[in-house]
Amino acid sequence: MGDDDSRQATFGADGDLSDRDPDADGTNDFGDPKEADETDGGYNRYAVSSLLQKAVRRSDEEVAAWAAWELARSGFAWNLWDRLHLYVVEDLCAGQDVALLVERYETLATERWEPGEWRGRLCAVHGALACARATSSREAPNADEFFGNAADARAKARETGEEPRVDFPVGAFEPGGPYDVAFDKHTGEGSRMGRGGEFFKTHGARVGPEGEDEQSARWQRLNMVLRDAEFSEEQIDHALDPVDPDAKWAEPSFDGTE
């Protein structure tokens, strides 16, 4: 649900905010009528959803599996899948394949089967277990918060004419600075500096610190040999050299200076 974040802020206080599957059972495990945001086990769905996220974050597989199962069986599968998709970007390291798995499990649970029936519940458990077993990290939210705080610090510093207490990683970010190589033919500044394909091939297309594999390096070398621009062997070798892990942005000028 697009507005679930605002709903979560209510902590389920307003029963009219619930969106339970209309086909879900109207009584809990004890035979009592369920409140709007009550699960079959008698728990508040907001609390169960919060527990699920903390279980994923702390890699507690059993608790994560139960929380997902509880939400799915109680008619809140939409809530479960919405939150799991958030967790893969909020609480896991970047690059985790689990993001694709969660998408697939949701498709199976909601399009091929019914989300609350046994196959849908199995998908819910699988999705939660996959998230709990992935490498946990708050790197994305921490980065987002830091960059936002740095932006505020820079703006306040400009108002007072002072240096910011915290700055963006790139600092001033201008030609001639530590990240000079970024100003190539793809930027206005680089074009005005006459940095064309030769500069890009020699400096801007380098990768690392692992470097190109053998086949890719061979193709790159041949491309530079066959181009109209004449590249020196020194330039070609540099273009294929892995980036220095201790000086990722260092680039020689090939005129005897760095």
In a nutshell, what does this entry contain?
This protein has 258 residues and is mainly alpha-helical.
Overview of this protein structure:
Helix 4 packs antiparallel against helix 5, helix 5 runs antiparallel to helix 6 and helix 10 runs antiparallel to helix 11. The protein is mainly α and 258 residues long. It is built from eleven helices and no strands. InterPro entries: DNA_pol3_clamp-load_cplx_C (IPR008921).
What is the secondary structure topology, with strand pairs?
Layout: H1 4-8, H2 45-57, H3 61-73, H4 77-90, H5 98-112, H6 118-133, H7 139-160, H8 188-192, H9 197-204, H10 214-226, H11 233-240
Helix pairs in contact: 2-3, 2-4, 2-6, 3-4, 3-6, 4-5, 4-6, 5-6, 9-11, 10-11
Region (Disordered): 1-42, 236-258
Biased composition (Basic and acidic residues): 236-249
Specify the helix fraction band. Answer: 40-55%
Q: Outline the biggest β-sheet.
A: none
What is the gyration radius calculated from CA atoms? 27 Å
Mean pLDDT comes to 88
Features:
258 residues; mainly alpha; 3 domains; 11 helices; disordered N terminus
